[in-house]
Design goal:
Layout (H helix, E strand, L loop, with lengths): L17 E6 L4 E6 L4 H13 L4 E2 L9 E4 L2 E10 L3 E9 L4 E7 H4 L6 H8 L3 E4 L14 E3 L2 E4 L8 E7 L7 E5 L5 H4 L3 E7 L1 E3 L14 E9 L4 E10 L1 H9 L5 E9 L4 E6 L2 E6 L18 E7 L4
Antiparallel strand pairs: 1-2, 3-5, 4-5, 5-6, 6-16, 7-20, 8-18, 8-20, 9-10, 9-13, 11-12, 11-13, 14-17, 15-16, 15-17, 18-19
Length: about 300
């Protein structure tokens, strides 16, 4: 389960009561605190209505991809928010040169590890969250399978994307993000070794699907571009899912589809190769919760290795 606590309004006084919202199906609890005097609150509301949704961009320049090794590139893409400038970090992976795998506490017979812990244990080049998870700290919120191992057999009715990898036939892509409304997913997912179901953020028509509003939090996502690359994406600075998707659509990434894999302090991404060794971990706005320097312990992660090393 993923729990996020929204930052108080700039007009808020912490002594005032809070309102709590639960987003069914996401496992998201949002706590909002409003406490400004009525006149100041109305003024803040009025001014906010005059502003854009909170993010502004100029004309997007092509990403400055850093070549990490053959088939692996990294870019840090600037986004300007109302309060500050931030970046969305993207790793672009060629599935012809890299293999994807699932690492789970159930499969491995181990306790949850931080992302660096999983990478060290399994000798991974890259890693990212596989999905959100239920309160048992094992079971994915959506369908999750790796070979004959099934973590969650249920196809979630509200989750519209599937990350699939390692097909059993050569005529299918080695990895893809399937759109539940556009792709023949029922035919495809039985053909793949790895299947992870999550929320769609962007569909194959280039439309952002996250509803307006909702909590602001760090986000980890997995996407596919129109050239067939897989993208691991992380944004540490909290923003809404709507703003995150809109920012990516304004960038020249040629996104075909994008799915959300985790948010808040659990959202993590790791690169572990000679030219770049870096861990990205999310942040929670709850003042009483600070993840360790290696991030939260995660039950299910997607790992990446070089195919030449298989």
């Amino acid at each position: 389960m993923s729990i996020y606590f929204a930052r108080p309004s700039p007009c808020a006084k912490l002594a005032e009561p809070m309102r709590v919202f639960y987003y069914e199906g996401m496992g998201v609890l949002r706590v909002l605190s409003f406490s400004a005097p009525p006149c100041k609150f109305l003024l803040c509301t009025f001014l906010c209505c005059l502003l854009p949704a909170g993010i502004a961009w100029g004309d997007a320049a092509p990403p400055a991809w850093q070549e990490l090794e053959a088939g692996l590139q990294f870019a840090s893409l600037a986004v300007s928010q109302a309060e500050s400038a931030t970046t969305i970090d993207v790793v672009r992976i060629d599935p012809a040169l890299f293999r994807f795998s699932l690492h789970s506490v159930s499969v491995e017979g181990a306790a949850p590890h931080s992302l660096p812990g999983w990478a060290e244990r399994e000798d991974l080049v890259l890693a990212i969250n596989a999905s959100m998870y239920l309160p048992d700290h094992v079971t994915s919120t959506g369908y999750l399978r790796y070979g004959e191992y099934i973590n969650n057999p249920r196809i979630h009715s509200k989750f519209g994307a599937f990350f699939v990898a390692e097909p059993d036939v050569p005529d299918l892509p080695r990895a893809a993000v399937l759109d539940r409304e556009r792709d023949p997913w029922e035919e495809r997912i039985p053909r793949y070794m790895l299947v992870a179901q999550n929320y769609r953020l962007i569909d194959t028509d280039g439309k952002a699907l996250w509803l307006p509003g909702g909590p602001e939090h760090s986000i980890a996502a997995v996407g596919q571009d129109r050239q067939g690359h897989i993208l691991f994406i992380h944004c540490r600075v909290p923003m809404t899912g709507e703003a995150f998707a809109a920012a990516l659509l304004r960038m020249p990434l040629a996104l075909r589809s994008l799915m959300y894999v985790e948010g808040g302090s659990q959202a993590a991404m790791l690169v572990r190769c000679p030219k770049l060794r870096r861990l990205w971990i999310g942040q929670s706005s709850a003042v009483f919760w600070h993840p360790s320097e290696n991030g939260a312990a995660l039950p299910n992660v997607i790992g990446v290795r070089r195919r030449a090393e298989q």
